[in-house]
Design a protein that fits this description.
This protein has a domain at about 50-85. The chain contains three helices and two strands; from the N terminus they run H-E-E-H-H. It has helices spanning about 15-25, 50-55, 65-85, and strands at about 30-35, 40-45.
């Protein structure tokens, strides 16, 4: 399937409505453009991977404060470094 669109004097082009509907894109959506030897390929810009997991992160909340988490992280890192140093 292919569609034809025209580059405007502002160096913009419009995706046909049928393409926008099929892709589910709305105004303001960003695209990555990859030049090829005979044109280009456009793809929807991917969201950051962390956003894919954002909904799952709430399950990890055990009520500890950021300071408590930071202290535990530092303690665990210190233990791991000590193991590496003293296991030589």
């Amino acid at each position: 399937m292919s569609f034809t669109t025209t580059l405007t004097t502002k160096n913009q082009f419009t995706l046909p409505k049928s393409v926008r509907d099929k892709l589910g894109v709305k105004k303001g959506v960003k695209f990555d453009i990859y030049p090829t030897s005979d044109g280009f390929i456009g793809r929807l810009k991917r969201r950051s991977r962390i956003l894919d997991f954002a909904g799952d992160l709430k399950n990890l909340d055990d009520g500890r404060s950021i300071n408590e988490i930071r202290e535990e992280t530092q303690r665990l890192a210190s233990e791991e470094i000590s193991k590496k140093i003293f296991s030589r």
